[in-house]
Amino acid sequence: MKILVVDDENDVKVLFEQRFRREIRNGEMEFMFAFSGEDALAYLQKHNHEAVLILSDINMPGMSGLELLQRIKASYNDPSPHVIMVSAYGDQENYNHAMKHGANAFVTKPVDFVSLKEKLKSLV
Amino acid sequence: MIMFRNYKQKQKANNLLETQKKEIQATLLELKSTQSQLIQSAKMASLGELTAGIAHEIQNPLNFVNNFSEVNKELAEELKSELTSGNLQSATEIANDMQANSEKINHHGKRADAIVKGMLQHSRTSTGAKEPADINALCDEYLRLSYHGIRAKDNSFNATINTDFDSSIGKVNVIPQEIGRVLLNLYNNAFYAINEKQKQNIGVYEPSVTVSTKKMNSAIEINVKDNGTGIPQKVLDKIFQPFFTTKPTGQGTGLGLSLSYDIVKAHDGEIKVETKEGEGTAFIISLPFTA
Q1: How many other CB atoms sit within 10 Å of the CB of residue B7?
Q2: pLDDT for B29-80, tens place per residue?
Q3: Using the beta-carbon criterion (under 8 Å), do B147 and A61 form an inter-chain contact?
Q4: Are B20 and B73 in a shared domain?
Q5: DSSP E strands, chain B
Q6: What CATH number corresponds to the domain at position B172?
Q7: Percent of chain B scored above 90 by pLDDT?
Q8: Residue B237's pLDDT band (boundaries 50, 70, 90)?
Q9: Which of the residues A103, B13, B42, B267 has the least number of beta carbons within 10 Å of its own beta carbon?
């Protein structure tokens, strides 16, 4: 299972690689990283259908996670990848917006990695 | 007799003048104290705006500190079991990871620390001392604070932020928290201007703020440019006047640009504005190297 993680914080890469080191080691999951919404779209264009799951932060400079979600759901629909939105503000507004535009799940920061792991495994 | 009357009248007039002088002096003193109270309350108001940005900025490093320390705890368990089974190579690998993680913990701890220190400096009444400061880092730090502050209040807000920092400018002698306050005011204004333009719903509009720095002959220039509503020509002369604001009542103190002007002037610098109504505004600060 290939997962694209989108976040403007570079250290998210090291963190995920460590948090999921068992899953990465036994080949259960593979992680790719993009540090902006723009980067994520460029990656998806280059590697169409490679990422089956996208985990994106909402609050990023430039293209926000919600805009990225809309673009993904508009241009990739056969099948469209699963998108999980992550936000520091677990408020109703962001949640509603994400769900309305087809997000498959919503995760609140700080991320609980145990439940995130379960979510990832159940989605695919 | 006439002379005596003149003298009495003169004395009366003198007494009156003396009383008036005392009254004026008292009023002046009161005005001065009111003015410094107002400046302090403007500082505190901008601190309030900052708080949301700071909360967001601190949350991220704290999450990293918590996460990496949890990972290290798990790794320590794994390390022990590898050692028990005599697997020295993977034990060394785990120890290396743990070392890298504790560096991350330290880095993000310091990041949160710097944010708190910056916040305390911002709220201080007394002016700090000039010190060699990394202007590019200062521009970047306050840009993040301002952006996240606005995003925390209005999460539908979004803008493209471009930075173009001249790495050759090096360090410049300034009072960092004062220049930070100037930057914060300019950024908040820029974000306000693009947000207002977005509200006008005029077709395709890509709101953007560009911050650039440049080394000149004897000064450095900081340029804060937005493609927002612009400043109408008829109010352009007034923007640096204390208490002048175009914002609705209660939303602006009208002291932001006036304070900024005073701060830049105290650094022997200049603040210029280039604007076109409906198209955008650029504020250009120049600070001499010798400041």
Answers
A1: 10
A2: 888 888 777 776 666 666 665 666 667 678 888 999 999 999 999 999 999 9
A3: yes
A4: yes
A5: 131-134, 160-164, 171-174, 208-215, 219-226, 270-276, 280-288
A6: 3.30.565.10
A7: 51
A8: confident
A9: B13
Structural domains in chain A? 2-123 (3.40.50.2300)
Query: Across residues A105-122, what is the average pLDDT?
Result: 89
Q: Are residues B193 and B71 in the same domain?
A: no
- Return the DSSP state at B250: T
Domain count, chain B: 2
Chain B interface, Cβ < 8 Å to A: 56, 59-60, 62-64, 66-68, 71, 75, 97, 100-101, 104, 108, 147-148, 151-152, 155-156, 158-161
Contact A93 B151 (CB under 8 A): no
Are B170 and B72 part of one and the same domain? no
User: What does the pLDDT look like over A35-84, one tens digit per residue?
Assistant: 999 999 999 988 876 778 999 998 887 788 999 999 999 887 777 889 99
Residue pair A47/B98 in contact by the 8 Å Cβ criterion: no
Half-sphere exposure of B261 (CA within 13 A, CB side): 12
State phi, psi for A111 to the nearest 5 degrees: -70, 130
> Do B187 and B115 have their domain in common?
no
Among chain B residues, the shortest Cα distance to A37 is held by B160
Q: Write the burial class of residue B55 (CB in 10 Å: 0-12 exposed, 13-18 middle, 19+ buried).
A: middle
Is the torsion defined by CA of A23, A28, A32, A36 positive or negative?
negative
DSSP class of B236: G
What is the rounded distance in angstroms from the CA atom of residue B280 to the CA atom of residue B206? 12
Nearest CA in chain B to A19: B71
The answer to whether A9 contacts B64, with C-beta atoms less than 8 Å apart, is yes
Q: Are residues B73 and B94 in contact, defined by beta-carbon separation less than 8 angstroms? A: no
Whether residues B228 and B278 fall in one domain: yes
